[in-house]
Structure formats: C-alpha cells, structure tokens
Design goal:
mainly alpha; two-stranded antiparallel ribbon; 15 helices; 6% strand; globular
Length: 481
C-alpha cells in the first residue's frame, strides 16, 4: 500500500507524529513538577492541609504524565537509528555527547528521586521528601536544557569542524556548541511555555470544579494560583517570544519570511499580514488582511526599515510557507488569548468575582488545552520553518534519511499510530478521569501495594522471615482478623 509513496515523506511524517505526541507530556510535566514543589513548600511553610491535599491530588496526575513522557521519548532514539541513520552517523560526534549528558544528569536525577517523591511521604522526613520533589523539578529543567541545546545547535550550528569523512566534529570549545546563538532564547521560551501550559491545565481543572461547586476551597486555591501565573507570565512570554523572533531573523531569515508571508522584499517598510492564504506557486498571499509597515516596526523597530522577502531565496531553499504562516499565527493568537484571560482574572479578582464569575470559569475551562496547542504550533513553526535543512544551511533533510524502502517506513508508521492512540489515549483518558474528581481534604496521593513495591518474581524477600516488618504487620484490627 506504500509502494507509490515517497519513503522520505513517510519518515518525516513518522517523526513529526511521534515527537508531537512526546512533546505534549514534557511540556506538562516540566511545569507540573515545579508546581508540586511550590505546593509542598507552601505546606511546609504554612502547615495548611489544603496545600498537602493539592500536592497529593496533582502528584497522581504527574506520575502518569511523567511515565507517558518517558515511554514516548524512547521512540526518538529508535528513529535516529532506523529512519535517520545518515544524520546520526554524520552529526553523532556533536549531538551524541549532549544527549548522553541528558541521560546522565537529568534522567538519572529524576529516576533517583522520583520513587521518594511518589511513595516516600510517610517513610522519610518532610525536608528530605521536599528535597526529592525539588530534585525531580530540577531534573525536568536539566532535561529540557540538554535537549533544547541539541535542537538549537541544529538550527544555529557553531563550534564544529568538518572531518575528512564529512562528519561534524566538536571544535575547541564545547561551550560554543552548547550555548549556540539560538539556545538561550529557545530555552527560556520553551520552559516558559511549559509553565503556562501547566497553569492553564490547573486553571481549567479548578474552573471545572468551581462551576460545579463554588464553595470548594481546593478548587478555589488551584484556580487562584493558576490565574496569577497566567496574568504574570503570559506578558513575559510574549516579550520572550519577540526576542526569540528577532534572534531568528538574524540567524534564520527565511523562516521569518515564511512566518510573515513575505514573498516579496519591502525596501520602504513591510506590512504585517494578519490573515490570508499563502500561495507558494504564485508567490503571493491571497485575500491578505494587512497593516502597513507594522512588520518592520515589530522586527526592526522602525516603520520604514527594509525587509527582505523570499524573492531573495532560491526556490529549493524556501520552507513550506503555508504551514509555517498558519502555525505561527495559531501560536501567537493563543498567546494573546492567554494574556486576555490573565487580565480578565485580575479584573475579577479586583472586583471580588474571581470565584463567582461563571463566564470567566467557562473561558478558563475552554482554554485548559490551549497550552498544548500552542507548544505544538510553536514546534511546527520552528521545525518546518527550518526546512529543507535538518542542520541549517549544512545538511538537507533529504540527505539525512536512511536508504529504506517506503513499505518498511510505512509499516512502522502504522504500528506507531495504532499503539500510540491506544496506549496514550487510555493514559490521557485516565488523567482526565482523575481531574474530574473533586479535590478534597485527605487526598491519598499515589497508592502503594499492601506489601510494598511489586517484585517481578511475585515474592517479597524476607516477608515470612521478618514478621515484625512494618510492611507485613496488619494495619488495623479488621486486617489482623
């Protein structure tokens, strides 16, 4: 069934599909890990049971999201070796060590403390458990640090030397590779997006429960915290996004040309095209709605500043304009919608209606998944805008693929689609089910088995030999009988 399809196209679709699924979960778990650390810190500082209840409520959701993120991420390395072996061979000396550092620092840190965070609340001291929660939160940030460093180097490659066999070899300074020109902007922009994604999920869940019961103190607290985050961080994210755009204009101008829909150069100031239908064949944007010279003001801070267009770029080096044009607008529109909801919440807070304004709660509920849509749209803008290169201006995507036949790639793509929608669909359904439950006093958190963690052999060593062990002792009279 795939004989007539291009193997390269299938490989690109497969990677886009799997990485989009994967990106959803880290975007959530990065922000949620920090939110959990804040909740536990507030509980330790104030002693209020409400913060502990919210910590346990969201801890269950974090455990599932984190697990799905880890599992979906394994497929990325699989595809590097199967569908993109040429890229792995030539770029491996640079990107391989960076990805190894992600495992050695972030993943090991998370794995070492995750068990204590999930199951150690009643088994270690409060301060030690809080330290474990902090380490997991720090681990998620370090993971984002290394992965974004790798990806950013592919956009702005520096600090390398070309080997005799065409390999990219590290130069004299790894610092230049890690902190490549686009990395600081992409790191701040992505991590901030993760925090906003989590804030709007938390706010949406809080709004859902407020619509059902306005007196629920737990729902009030999570909604209030989420709206503070939206009001304070959304404008910061818009500013960071603008700085990232200016950096992109400097290092990847054709990506910005595609984002703006500028097929033609504008020597006397470029318009901002709000909407339209890009046509790469005719090199124009049909039915364009535009504001004169505003694009030059945004990108150059000068109404009359000249801006080059795609007419200065060879046709075979142009990114797919239609996809980049619309994904960018989706991301920006959601960003301003987040800002609007944050400002609306400030007005409601000032007027004493934060927990009474039903339309605010409905809007927050509708906006709950907006962060996921925004991060995927941002990823599409970034990655599709880099085309036709996998390493910008140095290696084309077509030259990075493995020499595979289309049926081989297509078979694995079908398998991934079926497995992903089944496994992660069920996981997402279970997370939504947990979110639908009212947060209440005495949340139980993540449950353990009655005899501790399950052993693969089905046997708990020393269970019968140590009857005094807490795991083997009855917890109440009924259990003893």
């Amino acid at each position: 069934m795939f004989d007539s399809v291009d193997a390269l196209l299938l490989a690109r679709i497969q990677f886009a599909f799997t990485v989009s699924f994967h990106f959803i979960f880290p975007a959530f778990s990065i922000g949620l890990a920090s939110f959990l650390a804040v909740l536990e810190g507030l509980w330790l500082k104030t002693g209020k049971q409400l913060y502990l209840d919210l910590f346990k409520y969201w801890l269950k959701i974090f455990a599932i999201a984190f697990a799905m993120g880890v599992v979906s991420g394994i497929v990325m390395s699989y595809q590097f070796g199967t569908n993109w072996s040429v890229f792995s061979d030539l770029a491996g000396p640079v990107i391989g060590p960076l990805m190894a550092y992600e495992v050695l620092t972030a993943f090991f840190l998370e794995a070492g403390f995750l068990g204590v965070m999930l199951f150690g609340m009643e088994r270690v001291g409060k301060k030690l458990h809080f330290a474990a929660t902090l380490m997991v939160a720090v681990g998620t940030f370090i993971s984002a640090f290394w992965i974004l460093s790798v990806n950013s180097w592919m956009h702005t490659p520096v600090g390398f030397e070309m080997g005799a066999n065409g390999q990219f070899l590290p130069g004299d300074s790894w610092f230049a590779i890690v902190f490549n020109p686009s990395f600081p902007y992409r790191l701040v922009h992505t991590v901030t997006a993760a925090y906003l994604t989590t804030a709007f999920v938390v706010g949406g869940v809080g709004a859902w429960h407020l619509l059902r019961d306005r007196s629920n103190l737990h729902a009030r607290k999570m909604f209030s915290m989420a709206m503070w985050m939206a009001a304070l961080v959304a404008p910061v994210q818009i500013f960071v996004g603008d700085m990232h755009g200016l950096n992109t204009l400097e290092h990847q101008p054709q990506k910005v040309m595609a984002m703006e829909g500028h097929f033609d150069s504008h020597p006397d100031g470029a318009p901002l095209i709000l909407f339209g239908i890009p046509d790469s064949e005719e090199k124009t944007v049909h039915y364009a709605i535009e504001i004169p010279k505003l694009s030059s003001l945004i990108l150059k801070h000068d109404l009359d500043a000249p801006l080059a267009g795609l007419d200065t770029i060879p046709d075979d080096e142009e990114p797919p304009v239609g996809i980049v044009f619309w994904s960018f607008r989706i991301m920006v529109a959601i960003g301003f919608a987040m800002l609007g909801l944050g400002l609306w919440s400030l007005l409601a807070r000032w007027r004493g209606g934060l927990y009474r304004w039903s339309w605010l709660h409905r809007a927050a509920l509708v906006m709950a998944p907006s962060g996921f849509v925004a991060v995927i749209a941002g990823w599409v803008t970034t990655e599709v805008g880099r085309q036709p290169y996998v390493i910008y201006n140095l290696m084309c995507t077509a030259d990075a693929a493995s020499p595979l036949d289309a049926p081989a790639v297509g078979a694995s793509l079908v398998a991934f689609v079926l497995v992903y929608f089944t496994v992660f669909g069920f996981g997402t359904w279970y997370i939504l089910r947990l979110m639908s439950h009212h947060p209440h006093t005495g949340e139980y958190g993540v449950k353990r088995g009655d005899t501790g963690p399950i052993r693969t052999a089905g046997i708990t060593p020393g269970l019968t030999q140590n009857p005094g062990d807490p795991d083997t002792m009855p917890r109440n009279r009924e259990e003893a009988e």
